[in-house]
């Protein structure tokens, strides 16, 4: 009887965890994680020590989980008003605000402990990283360039991974971080197209809301074009070879395809452009980097 009585409790706890993971879109860790791993592999010139790789992964998961949970809390008032987000777990009550705050604090603690476990510089810079990744959630209230702030938040990942491996910050990972910031800002502009009317009605800021959809899409294209230049420069500075260069060309092709899916007259494929194509961009480039480094 005791086992039977505990089973519903265990199922309920498991379901709650799954609901929280869905709330923070845990699967979207796929966006930034591959670039952190790119920096890890290049900095180590191969596979890093297993313990270093473990703490990098823990830090990444902790930081992103904290950022997403905090974002849901910060945006709760707007999520209740927006038809696109009215089904989110905090809005429906599937996750309470107390649970979301607890999850946020635990994720922050995990991130800070992981940084401490890596090296002194990583630990010393962890509050700066938290300030950026948590502070982003409020930027749409006062600037149309919030997409860039989000880009900077994700761009911390490769520089942080480089510091984790080497204990220092060099120019190469800064350039890679710039590429990630441009990539993220560009695809976040595309994602924000879904909420242009809502943003205008509530006073929230975005580039499409401020400058219009055609101009915002042009800015997104310019950011992604500059990202490719930054990736080339990173390859030169890091001394990566021909296989990596092929990967950059493939990334450029994916970005061209991404922009072909969306236009000012047709926003029906925004989710495909945002979720599917960008997953191929990050994971695809990681595979080319691993092949390049491992086969040299």
Helices and strands in order:
Blueprint: H1 2-23, H2 29-44, H3 50-74, H4 76-81, H5 89-92, H6 97-118, H7 120-135, H8 146-166, H9 171-192, H10 196-202, H11 207-211, H12 213-238, H13 242-260, H14 270-294
Helix pairs in contact: 2-3, 2-8, 2-14, 3-6, 3-7, 6-7, 7-8, 8-9, 9-12, 9-14, 12-13, 13-14
Give your account of this protein's structure.
The protein is an all-alpha fold. The protein has a single domain, classed as Orthogonal Bundle (Tetracycline Repressor, domain 2). It contains 14 helices and no strands. Helix 2 runs antiparallel to helix 3, helix 2 packs parallel to helix 8 and helix 9 packs antiparallel against helix 14. The longest helix is centred in the last third of the chain and has 26 residues.
Question: How many domains comprise the coordinates?
Answer: 1
Runs in which pLDDT lies below 50 for 5 or more consecutive residues are: none
> How many strands, which pairing sense, and closed or not: the largest β-sheet?
none
| C-alpha geometry | globular
> Mind telling me the CATH superfamily name?
UbiA prenyltransferase
CATH topology: Tetracycline Repressor, domain 2
Number of DSSP strands? 0
Class by alpha and beta content: mainly alpha
User: What is the CATH-assigned architecture?
Assistant: Orthogonal Bundle
Give me the Rg, rounded: 20 Å
* Element-level helix/strand string: HHHHHHHHHHHHHH
Number of helices: 14
Give the overall average pLDDT.
Answer: 90
Q: Roughly what fraction of the amino acids lie in strands?
A: under 5%
State the end-to-end distance: 61 Å
What's the CATH C level? Answer: Mainly Alpha
What percent of residues adopt helix (DSSP H or I)?
over 70%
């Amino acid at each position: 009887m005791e086992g039977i009585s505990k089973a519903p409790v265990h199922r309920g706890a498991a379901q709650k965890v799954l609901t929280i993971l869905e709330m923070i879109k845990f699967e979207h860790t796929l966006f930034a994680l591959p670039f952190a791993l790119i920096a890890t592999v290049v900095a180590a010139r191969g596979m890093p020590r297993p313990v270093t790789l473990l703490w990098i992964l823990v830090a990444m998961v902790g930081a992103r989980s904290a950022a997403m949970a905090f974002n849901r809390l910060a945006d709760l008032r707007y999520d209740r008003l927006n038809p696109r987000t009215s089904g989110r777990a905090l809005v429906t009550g599937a996750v309470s605000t107390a649970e979301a705050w607890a999850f946020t604090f635990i994720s922050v603690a995990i991130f800070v402990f992981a940084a401490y476990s890596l090296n002194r510089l990583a630990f010393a810079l962890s509050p700066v990283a938290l300030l950026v990744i948590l502070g982003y959630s409020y930027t749409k209230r006062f600037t149309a360039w919030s997409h860039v702030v989000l880009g900077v938040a994700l761009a911390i990942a490769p520089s942080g991974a480089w510091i984790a491996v080497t204990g220092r910050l060099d120019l190469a990972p800064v350039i890679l971080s710039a590429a990630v910031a441009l990539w993220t800002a560009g695809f976040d502009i595309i994602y924000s197209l879904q909420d242009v009317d809502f943003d205008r009605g509530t006073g929230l800021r975005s580039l499409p809301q401020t400058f219009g959809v055609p101009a915002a899409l042009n800015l997104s294209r310019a950011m992604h074009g500059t990202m490719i230049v930054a990736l080339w420069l990173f390859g030169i500075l890091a001394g990566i070879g021909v296989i990596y260069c092929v990967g950059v060309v493939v990334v450029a092709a994916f970005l061209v395809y991404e922009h072909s899916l969306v236009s000012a007259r047709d926003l029906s494929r925004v989710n495909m452009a945002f979720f599917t194509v960008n997953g191929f961009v990050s994971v695809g480039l990681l595979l080319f980097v691993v092949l390049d480094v491992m086969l040299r």
